[in-house]
Automatic annotation (TrEMBL):
The Sigma-54 factor interaction domain, residue ranges: 143-372
Coiled coil residues, start to end: 117-170
GO molecular function: ATP binding; sequence-specific DNA binding
BP GO terms, sorted: regulation of DNA-templated transcription
Organism in which the protein naturally occurs: Lacicoccus alkaliphilus DSM 16010
Descriptive protein name: PAS domain S-box-containing protein
Pfam families with a match to the protein in the record: AAA_lid_14, HTH_8, PAS_9, Sigma54_activat
Entry-linked PANTHER family: C4-DICARBOXYLATE TRANSPORT TRANSCRIPTIONAL REGULATORY PROTEIN DCTD, TRANSCRIPTIONAL REGULATORY PROTEIN
Domain of life: Bacteria
């Protein structure tokens, strides 16, 4: 009696699971740890054909029984949460195979550490790729990129900056047009300052005084000593006019004269002023849209668009999305004094799949949410999913969009199936029973799918 109890204690002493089947492939022993790993009670499996409990193609113990030989398998995913190393042995007594035993050693914590190290290395590699942009004297230190598209754009900007030609930066809202304007200014090595003015944010009645400045007493409530305008402040530097397409029509004529003659009068002033500045303009409108507009003068457009710098949206340069994601994650974690959390591969896949209509500005918004509201050791994917619901984005449509290039139908179907099963598992906290019910498949089938797709 004591020997049987001692064997039972020893079998369950370590963090190993043991399963034994007889020669008819029926379960005759199911250890405590096996119950914990597979969430199946002893009384639910004992006496059953093992193929009724698990999918046959994942049973190493059957190989040991049927072929009368030992088998080992490293890094097997027993469940979505548990990885094991497996060893299966036949029970051979006097030349007769009477059954087989399989032992599974839980290596989940080891694999988790290895994964965390790999993810950390990945993040370090991404951040290291961007170190070249972070030198204090680098004009492009705030422009994070990895794509060849942006490298070519940088080369284009460096050439343009060596001239004094007027530059028009085009691109969608949120791509960072002002950052590029600042990079041009710094690359130009001008003596004066970088002076920005958002043409869409200034009321029409204040636009002239804001741009040209005014002399004392020019209008009721004016500063007695007058005020410098943006043009005066930008002398020997750069005047950056953002959203130039919103400049009032009557101001366009006056500004065109400044570009032609480099002379102007302050509001209420009698002395003609001389100016010298580098003009960089920006708009989220297309050039053709400005040309066809009744509210923007074509002659002014030709003046400001000597060199056009077009910044492509994030969806056209997916290689930059992950670099920007990690860069903002690092910055915002530091800002909010929070530990740098891990981003799993599923989140990164969905981040890359989303089209980012708001571009970098929208990406910053999302990363900020993730940093503020995530708990634990990793970023909470559900926060991003909630954001997608808020903005009315069909996450599934983005993830399952048609792949680039030709692939076989079966491969594409497998991708969709794997992504859907992953989402269902996440929605049910990786509970196999609930997930299998939601998917309408048996637990053994679900285990087989998890193994097949390495989920």
């Amino acid at each position: 009696m004591i020997e049987k109890k001692l064997i039972e204690i020893l079998i369950n002493f370590y963090n190993h699971s043991f399963t034994i089947i007889d020669k008819d492939e029926k379960l005759i022993y199911w250890s405590v740890r096996a119950s914990e790993i597979f969430n199946l009670k002893h009384e639910d499996v004992i006496g059953k054909d093992i193929k009724e409990v698990f999918s046959e193609d994942q049973l190493l113990i059957l190989e040991a029984l049927r072929r009368n030989r030992s088998f080992e398998k490293k890094r097997h995913q027993a469940t979505p949460d548990i990885h094991v190393d497996i060893k299966a042995e036949p029970i051979n007594i006097r030349g007769e195979v009477l059954g087989a035993v399989v032992s599974e050693v839980d290596v989940t914590s080891q694999i988790k550490k290895e994964k965390e190290l790999m993810e950390l290395k990945s993040k370090v590699d991404v951040l290291s790729d961007n170190v070249k942009h972070l030198h204090n004297d680098d004009p492009f230190k705030n422009i994070i990129y990895k794509s060849s598209i942006m490298e070519n754009l940088k080369n284009q900007i460096e050439k343009a900056a060596k001239t004094n030609a007027n530059i028009l930066i085009t691109g969608e809202t949120g791509v960072g047009k002002e950052l590029f304007a600042q990079a041009i200014h710094k690359t130009s090595r001008l003596e004066g300052d970088f002076i920005p003015l958002n043409c869409g944010a200034i009321p029409m009645e204040l636009f002239e005084s804001e741009l040209f400045g005014y002399d004392g007493g020019a209008f009721t409530g004016a500063n007695k000593g007058g005020n410098e305008g943006k043009i005066e402040l930008a002398h020997d530097g750069t005047l950056f006019l953002d959203e130039i397409g919103e400049m009032p029509l009557e101001m366009q004529v006056k500004f065109l004269r400044i570009l032609q003659e480099r002379k102007y009068f302050k509001l209420g002033g009698k002395k003609e002023q001389t100016t010298n500045f580098r003009l960089i303009s920006a708009t989220n409108k297309r050039i053709t849209e400005l040309l066809s507009s009744d509210n923007f003068r074509s002659d002014l457009l030709y003046r400001i668009n000597v060199i056009n710098i077009h910044i492509p949206p994030l969806r056209e340069r997916p290689d930059d999305i992950e670099s920007l994601f990690y860069y903002y994650l690092f910055q915002l974690s530091d800002k909010y004094r929070k530990d740098l959390l891990y981003a799993d591969q599923q989140l990164l896949k969905e981040i890359r799949a989303y089209e980012w209509p708001g571009n970098a500005r929208e990406l910053i918004n999302v990363v900020e949410r993730l940093v503020i509201f995530s708990n634990g050791s990793s970023l909470d994917n559900s926060i991003f999913h909630q954001y997608l619901e808020e903005v009315g984005s069909d996450r599934a449509m983005n993830i399952y969009s048609l792949p680039g290039g030709d692939i076989e139908l079966k491969e594409y179907v497998d991708r969709v199936e794997a992504d859907y099963i992953r989402r269902v598992l996440e929605n049910h906290d990786h509970n196999i029973e609930k997930s299998s019910i939601a998917l309408g498949v048996s637990r053994p089938t679900l285990y087989a799918k998890i193994k097949k797709f390495n989920l």
